[in-house]
Amino acid sequence: MICGIGIDSVDIARFNDWSDYPPKKLLKIFSGHEIDYCLKNPKKSAERFSARFAAREAFFKAFCSMKPNHKIPFLTVCKSIWLESKKGHPPQMHVDWHALSVDCAPKVWISITHTGALATVIAIIETSQHTPLTKESKPRY
């Protein structure tokens, strides 16, 4: 069952200078692996940062619709999720549900698209796969 949905679009140009930001500032929002991935190809850096930021915004909206009474800061959500990119596969969103005070592991579906100007992400949280969290299932960053 779908229990949360969110969508976000961001202007890619807004992220043109993010490759010049110090790592300490970027680590407030992104994981180290995401930062490395975004900086790997300077020509795609703004596109990659913008897509990952839009993914956080979309997930935040989906999470807030799933848990409307569970007030959580946006930056806490940012540090609790990350995207993994594997060549030939769509990006996968990983969530540290423990950090978000959720005692099950819902499935998160994301779709990312971008044009020359915009990055758009939709996030869907589905609870049909209620998998109880264990210490072993705690994600690695």
**Distance linking N and C termini:** 28 Å
For this structure, the CATH topology is Ribosomal Protein L22, Chain A
Please bin the fraction of helical residues.
25-40%
Work out the count of structural domains.
1
CATH architecture: Alpha-Beta Complex
Oligomer: single chain
Number of beta-strand segments: 5
| CATH class annotation | Alpha Beta
Strand order of the largest sheet: 1-5-4
Q: How would you describe this structure in keywords?
A:
about 140 residues, alpha+beta, Ribosomal Protein L22, Chain A, three-stranded antiparallel sheet, two-stranded antiparallel sheet, 4 helices, 5 strands, about 25% strand, globular
What's the quick description here?
This protein is an alpha+beta fold and 141 residues long.
Description:
A hairpin with a 7-residue loop joins strand 2 and strand 3 (92-95). The protein is built from 4 helices and 5 strands. With 141 residues, it is of the alpha+beta class. The longest helix is centred in the middle third of the chain and has 22 residues, at 45-66. It has helices at residues 23-26, 32-40, 45-66, 74-80, and strands at 2-11, 81-84, 92-95, 107-114, 118-126. It is globular, with a radius of gyration of 15 Å. Strands 1-5-4 form a 3-stranded antiparallel beta sheet. The chain has a two-stranded antiparallel ribbon with strand order 2-3. Helix 2 runs antiparallel to helix 3 (45-66). The mean pLDDT is 90. It has one domain: Alpha-Beta Complex (Ribosomal Protein L22, Chain A).
